[in-house]
Amino acid sequence: MNAYAELHCHTGFSMLDGASSPEELLDRALVLGLRSLAITDHNGLYGAVCFAHAAQERGIHPVIGAELTLEDGHHLVLLAENQSGYHNLSALISRSQLAHSKGQARTKLSWVRERSQGLICLTGCRHSPVAGRLLDRDQDGAFAALQQLLSIFDPQHLYVELQNHLRPGDRTLVAELAQLAKEVGLACVATNNVHYAERRGHHLQDVLVAIRHNAALPEARRWLYPNSEYALKSAGDMAQLFEGYEDAVARTVAIAERCQVELAFRDKALHPLPDTGDVSPDERLEQLCREALPRRYPDRSPQAERQLAHELDVIRHVQLAGYFLLVWDIVRYAQRHGWLARGRGSAASSIVAYLLGITNVDPIAHDLFFERFLSAEARVMPDIDLDLGARHREEVIQYIYQRYGEEHVAMVCNYVTYRQRSAVRDVGKALGMAPDTVDTLAKQLTWPYRTTIAEAMSQQRALAQKMPSRLSARLWARFLQLCEAIQGLPRHLSIHVGGMCITAAPLHEIVPLERATMPGRVVMQWDKDAMEDAGLIKIDVLSLRTLSAIEEALDLIEGHHGKRVDLETLPLDDPTVYQRLCKADTISTFQVESRAQQQALVKMQPRTFADMVVEVALIRPGPLQGNMVHPFFRRRMGREPVSYAHPLLEPILRETLGVIVFQEQVIRIAVAMGGFTAGEADLLRRAMSRHRSEEAMARFRDRFVQGGVERGVPRETAQGVFDQLRSFASFGFCKSHAAAFAKTAYDTVYLRERYPAAYYCAYLNNEPLGFYAPRIVIGDARRHGVTILPVHVNRSEGRCTLEQRAIRLGLSYVDGLGDAAIQRILDARPAEGFTGLQELCFSTRLPRRSVENLILAGAADAWDTDQRSLLWNLGRLHWREEALPLDWPPDGVQLEGMTRAERLMAEYSATGVSAKGHLMELYRRQAKQAGAMRSDELIRIQAGGRVRVAGMVAVRQAPPTAKGFVFLTLEDEHGMMNVIVKPRVFQGYERIWSRGLVLMVEGSVEREGAVTNVMAEAAWRLA
Ligand SMILES: [Zn+2]
Ligand SMILES: [Zn+2]
User: Fold this and answer.
1) Helix, strand, or coil here: 111?
2) Is-above-0.70 flag for pTM?
3) Ligand having the closest approach to the CA of 66
């Protein structure tokens, strides 16, 4: 009986040089009866964790290794024999990656010498230093190369690698290598340098190579393998191929068995806080929490005491005190500088996080469920998401690097994998299809329509008819097949939005590090799933512009009102806040301002913070698609009775009227009905959201149903509940996360209500932000009683500022006036201001175009309100302009005629906003003559009534889920109006709907509760 273990195997993680996923290779290994399989991707361990886990699931022994590229371009295969070998391999790859630019890793043999402990070396493929030289007829060179390797590895850790892919000369090469091995006293080992699971994978492999070389297949010919022999092979096949070298085949099994590595680094994960001194992390954490307790709970709540004791217990048990201290330290750093740092995600359910100031929602008051974050039997590491103001995030990241050292910190990566569109583009190019054909097809596949490529094709009949005539039917079939096959394979690496990994052990020994595209950034080769599975800890350091706006608003309020608003202690029951929410008066607030949110607010009529939490969790693409929203609102509005599938669910789902809204509810139901422990239930939730295999799900389902039956739940009911949990879990929201966001939303509504001028000013300074363009935000500010003053060449700063209680627009709102020009104006401006156009031009030496735009923006109105004469005067001035790095808009400015209307238009075109009035004023007469009503009149019209309305387009949306419906929000001087456009109506006036700035719409009034919509039938473009 033959036995074989493949020790040289590339997965898709060789990045465009391996056509199968780890799972496909392992599945194939099972079929072929292999007991061990190695992963040896080029210069990386990207797939190692995923490979090891998938192997264990299938009962296959995984061997972890990599194929390194040496300085001279030769290849060398290294396998980790033990833990220290693994660390050496990781360190070697890191060094090879970091010493070179992205994608150009090269290893020095001297580095291998320093890190050879625990590694087994195979001499490699045709590109190896030994075989490569033999192929070049350089016997002496080959001998010397082998001697050199022998000076690094002893004969128990160095094997001459034999490969036979039935190429001409392969048998000779094998014989020569075997002879050489004999001469120096080394053993041989047979491998197949696998690049795909099954033979047919060679088509995809060829395409990948062509993509890698950015060429069509015919031009890539010289880089392609000549046949399909690079598939995974059975022991029998290998024995036949290596007749006469049977021991080289048999030896693979023994080598594989020697390689014992475990990718579990939990004990190396946590970095102790540098200055905790003699106190243990547990003691330090408890001390900090106890100190904060009376501050957060002045009434000495016994429930808070109990929860704290429980959490400290759990944290001690899972040894995560250090993690909390680490995040606390980061938050403290931000707070010391007066920056906001707000934890969100499941961490917001923890009273420890609340006491440390990591989060700012009271988990006791809002009934948040700690076990969603952490449980005593936690098998996976929790993670904390930290939002920081966009302006200071980078400084915080730099602090983390400084505090823990570059050796211990890296950003988490993302694998960018092939999707339909990228598949079509890259495969099409490799097959030499015409670029416009590929382009047309790719555009058909707009996410998230779940059409297949073939469907997209047939939908586009013209295209379908065109294609086979230009391409042979066979090529076409191959194209479709390759596009399917390539999907899911990694294409390249990118950086995760904010994930940082901090470890106690040097990170580069745990996971290879490499350069990111962003200069100076280092990423690890694992994504968040891989690092989580390996027991490492992630902190998400994210940037949130809203927090910058809030920070700035707090400063402005302090400057103008002489008091600092403390958001930490703000009561969450201000009735005026809820009044605004009920009326959907939410433009420029956080999270509740979108059109969908506004419509939901009107139905929901939130009266408490708990209502806001539900609202934030519900109104998102997932639940909207999953049809959870409608049952909830029907119940909320009393149109449908509240019911529960089983009385066990009542205490869990009461807060959401019997509808599953929160992930925490999934966990609690699994515990209450399925008899899971909290930790198991969390594993179930994770499995559901990570789309684990059907078999894994079936096991969970059986367990759940069995547990339910034991608790007296009818089998069908338990099955039904499980299926409901499952359909929900893929887009469920965690309640603590919703609560953290709701808190920020509340703060924005509150600040806007109490300090509108300061709030809008700060908001405008942090654009782009939120759902609406600045012009809409300005209209909204005006409706909230804030005066907006136009840009003023002598009064404006770069940013918007407060003048008394009015907002003075900043110079940055003048189109094309970059930072450099603004700085020049501010530097040259005398204390008493410029006296006139001449002084402005002569002392700033601004380009003429900049000055023109300032005039059009109304910034020079103080000298002459007739902009035409200012422009005329400007034409007669001559000064030495100095170049500026400018970014001019393509369209020119209009110079003739300066009525009020045109000044309004000029200001709008020069700044994108209009401080001097609402653009709709210009069209009001025209609209009125045509019978259009104002937004404040519209609410009084009965349902079914025919109306005309007119306004500036604030938002245009065509959500993919809406089946061709388009939603418009029009704004006039008095407020907003919702317009719904059916596909048929849209098609008739497509240019008007999609291009118009100011529209008049005719249609009928529809009412849904307090929401008013105009169902459009016709439209005219006013501007
Ligand atoms: Zn190679
Ligand atoms: Zn290889």
Assistant:
1) helix
2) yes
3) 2
